[in-house]
Amino acid sequence: MTDTTTRYDDDARGPHAPPPPPAPASAAARPVVPARGTRRGAGLGEVAFDAGGFWGDRQDVNAAATLAHCERWMEELGWLENFDRVARGERTVDRPGWQFSDSEVYKLMEAAAWESARSGDAGAEALFVRLADRVTAAQDDDGYLTTAFGHPGLEPRYSDLAMGHELYNMGHLLQAAVARLRTAGADDAFVAAGRRVAEHVCREFGAGGRDELCGHPEIEVALAEFGRATGEPRYVEQARIFIERRGHGRLPVRPLLAADYFQDDVPVRDAEALRGHAVRALYLTAGAVDVAVDTGDDGLLESLVRQWRRTVERRTYLTGGMGSRHQDEGFGDDFELPADRAYCETCAGVASIMVSWRLYLATGEAEYADLIERTLYNVVAASPSADGCAFFYANPLHLREAADPVEAAGVHMRAEGGLRAPWFDVSCCPTNVARTLASLQAYAVSVDGPAALSVLQYAAGNVSVELDDGRLAVSVATGYPHDGTVVLSVTDAPATPVTLRLRVPHWARRASLWSTTAAGGARRVDAAPGWAHVSQVLAAGDEIRLVLGDEPRLTWPDSRIDAVRGTVAVERGPLVLCLESPDLPAGMEIYGFVLDASAPPQPANDGASVRLLPRPGRDASGGRLPFGPCEDPADGTPAQRPDAPGGQPAEGGLEVRLIPYYRWAERGPSTMRVFLPAST
Amino acid sequence: MTDTTTRYDDDARGPHAPPPPPAPASAAARPVVPARGTRRGAGLGEVAFDAGGFWGDRQDVNAAATLAHCERWMEELGWLENFDRVARGERTVDRPGWQFSDSEVYKLMEAAAWESARSGDAGAEALFVRLADRVTAAQDDDGYLTTAFGHPGLEPRYSDLAMGHELYNMGHLLQAAVARLRTAGADDAFVAAGRRVAEHVCREFGAGGRDELCGHPEIEVALAEFGRATGEPRYVEQARIFIERRGHGRLPVRPLLAADYFQDDVPVRDAEALRGHAVRALYLTAGAVDVAVDTGDDGLLESLVRQWRRTVERRTYLTGGMGSRHQDEGFGDDFELPADRAYCETCAGVASIMVSWRLYLATGEAEYADLIERTLYNVVAASPSADGCAFFYANPLHLREAADPVEAAGVHMRAEGGLRAPWFDVSCCPTNVARTLASLQAYAVSVDGPAALSVLQYAAGNVSVELDDGRLAVSVATGYPHDGTVVLSVTDAPATPVTLRLRVPHWARRASLWSTTAAGGARRVDAAPGWAHVSQVLAAGDEIRLVLGDEPRLTWPDSRIDAVRGTVAVERGPLVLCLESPDLPAGMEIYGFVLDASAPPQPANDGASVRLLPRPGRDASGGRLPFGPCEDPADGTPAQRPDAPGGQPAEGGLEVRLIPYYRWAERGPSTMRVFLPAST
């Protein structure tokens, strides 16, 4: 965590090298398999989260409820029938759904494929096949496949590349095909359809073809991974062409919107930070990392690492959320991080994890896994309701006016945050959450070369990986994130020395690690934020105990973030906490206080207890105009004004509890804030 | 300023009473002539601003440069030819301009009409006639007149009422016709075209017609005033129908946007504050005030006063700017007033003045004139460049990244603020500024009943009005807004007592008023914020001296405005000041300091001088992640971090100058902020 230079692995193979030897079968089912590098993520068969644990529970709800929920909504809204109509050759009149609705079907298929591999759930397999049949029937002979263009009654193919999302849709189809190939292990009809799509795209947009771009990146990361999965370097090459083609002003500037919306303002390798539409920027970056890694483009990779760092240091919320503007669903300027108008789209959280994961695999740095953890607990986990059938789209850190419950009843037209909705007019988030949860254990550990395992995310469960000299298996016992102690028990190990690396989160300033052998020897290992590791011969019965601590703590924001000056947040472990109106006395407004920063927050259930004090004066409510009390030139002090209505704590203070942010709005419409005005 | 109850005049005539007797000819040329009430605004012939004064200069530049600038751009872009093509009956292919481009032509015509009356400028008259000929030639036999619908090659009439802007366009035509009728004094061909438009609208959308609404309010305020100008109560009645029809969900909810965008979520009289798209909300409110006043609907008027008050107290910027969100170009929630993402569209400033002026005429309260002053100096005056040929569209109070000068060269697609542009793709602001400047003296004074004159806005010039017992004429000498002393010299007066009311701005806490008679007697008059007045027989040579003061002052924002907590603004007279990067030493960032709030700001040229101190620590730049330094549980104090790059003042402080906000970005692309982090 203290090294600021860029490092990444390079196994010295040249560009377009063939993929490395396949991982063991249990490791094959994973979303990202770089062609180079000595580090690999876990296959879905190598890690299992315990049922009833934080993530295991969410995975089970995802499988049992969310997948069917998504299919039902898409059927009801006609997004699935769009494929049938094309397959039947019918003329389309008033096609339902946005031009990107196909992609939701593919993300659901991807989720079903991962889920099938994760749990062996026959329902997920049946869902995949059911959808695949309808999708593949709509493919044109030349491989083109979308339901919004190029068929009777629709605009011609590629007539609106900026906003048409055709390549975006086909990109998500390819990601579903990657999941299918790596989980079913077979080159079935859907994978074959994917090959035809990829060939079509290379033919149409390759060298000598259309010198154009899709307005929404996605095809890049998809072609790269499909190329990896199929061993076809031409697909990776086509991804490279798209990456290099971007940033030269091919896409139109749109009225009233920012120039960088499409990331077509600056070449990818020349950019300084992520900018414009957040999901677009992040999908593009994920694809660019893939291209940089697979082609050995070290300059590009270094640039992407720099961009990630500046983005995380200056354009990322405490929750890990990205996207400071509702306008353009976009990043803001450096330090433009308003809590109230934070967009922090759930999909941007998913996409941020995609980028961080690729950079972790390329570099092995803990900071990427740190951000993945922060984003998983405070963005992705915040989105779905407990029953898996309603979702947050935007994830603001402050809501002043409670949402209207009526709005959540049906298809939600808006994305303001405040109430989870079953479906959205633009419904990218539910299926993105689904595919992420279904494959979540892939991000939990990595195998680093011949004899090392890194544990990145802590959850009760089991890990079993094949190292060069044999199997390493550990069971993980923890109440994380609500308990800061993680106990790893070795159940199987090679006879030769192995390295076990444990990530120590940046917030765990006083972590400790104890390694105890089955024979009874115990020693304390250095555990500063970053990595703690044991390198030795391990044996069944050995135990490694990581104590990260779980005291709530105050987190002071960077003073350059104007929007939260004079406030403080409270965190506990990896969880950002928040104050929600149901936890305030009746009649007290969410702004009627300051937090007593001299009193340390105390643990309380899964959150914390803090003391609130009356808000000091200085407001305009005593006047008629909002321009604030004017300084009286006579004495130079700001006028103290009577307070506004809304109620305040008594002079002696008021203890209130903060809850984990991911659980807010579970008790109905509410107001909420993460950053609390602080006493000074 | 201390009375919080709602009061307005009621002359006890019933609804739909005929208009009051006409004002003298010199008073006829004014934009708002309520059918009821004892108070009237000045005619353009009753007030003249001195050439070279603050507003006189801007009016002259407007006449000499802006009107021609706007005509030239609209000719070049084909927005004028749109009328010719319709007149010729040609089929339209690829019509240039948005569906509301017609309205820019009408706003320019309105400006030309006022300008012609203000200065007698033959060029302005010729411009009006030139445009009127082309516009009227495009009118359909039944009165319908737009160039974006209902003609060969275009969509049918009223096929997209939500976004088509047909009634909006025709509303602006009617406002141009009002200006023509009241300045030329004749019912010419253009006014006749206006009558046909109004009749068409009443026929089409009246009782028994289409039960629909235009997505962008404007027709309401236009029909009401055209009804007043022509003495036709059916037009006011149609305005009333549109006001009552709104708020029942006739317009569609749009994806990803706020429900209140069109103000169709809540009936006008039931709303609590202005909300949604700011210009839409303000135009609607202006029309609603007109309807309430003319129909004697006291309940509606009281509601509108309440809405204005809450909007001003909780949703209005220090500059008077309205619109907290780029998304939807909209109002935010209460206290959602980010400085950086302030939209504060110039047109919303114009529209806010329209509302405040109508409420002033209805109630006579000084607070409305206060807000008009604030908005004129800090929004409207900020928009045009000194040469009158470039304009701000958005008026943020904080810019972190300097604009790209290339962007300003041609038609500006965006509205981010930071650089004035000659024209915009959506170019509503230039013509709105033009029509406001051309008629500005109408807002300077009011005649209140038979024997009283209120002076509302201070500018060097002359006022001459007919009271019941004779002419009252005063000359005004002042360097306002840069000098806080205003001297009124009586040059003519009736032989009977008159009341002269002078507005004392809310910020002038220690104002004094001296009344001196030609005979040599002098007395001091009470001059607390609100009104100061003398009621006596006046005579030529009498002098009234109002001393408002012009010391710069600190203005502390309401503590409920999260976005500017811990900051302070500096104002001087009616001017909001700002710190702009050219006034900082090279290398110092716009965030690298705090203002020393213990040192009173000092006058410096037309702005102020303040002392900056180094910014105290507490930022994340020493770490790798942006999550802020964590409190160390051991000692409970926030970690102090080394500072970020960017330069800071030396320990002893640094004197810098602040300039009036309206002059920012005159020295090329810059960063800027109004609210300065303050030492505590």
TrEMBL record, chains A, B:
Among the GO biological process terms of this entry, one is: carbohydrate metabolic process
Listed Basic and acidic residues bias regions: 1-14
Q: Where is this region: Disordered?
A: 1-39, 604-652
Q: Which Pfam families match?
A: Beta-AFase-like_GH127_cat (PF07944), Glyco_hydro127C (PF20737), Glyco_hydro127M (PF20736)
Tell me which residues make up the Non-reducing end beta-L-arabinofuranosidase-like GH127 middle domain. Answer: 453-548
Locations of Low complexity compositional bias? Answer: 25-36
Residues covered by the Non-reducing end beta-L-arabinofuranosidase-like GH127 catalytic domain:
53-441
Q: What are the residue boundaries of the Non-reducing end beta-L-arabinofuranosidase-like GH127 C-terminal domain, all occurrences included? A: 553-677
Give the SUPFAM superfamilies listed for this entry.
Six-hairpin glycosidases (SSF48208)
Listed name of the protein: Glycoside hydrolase family 127 protein
| Organism expressing this protein natively | Zhihengliuella halotolerans
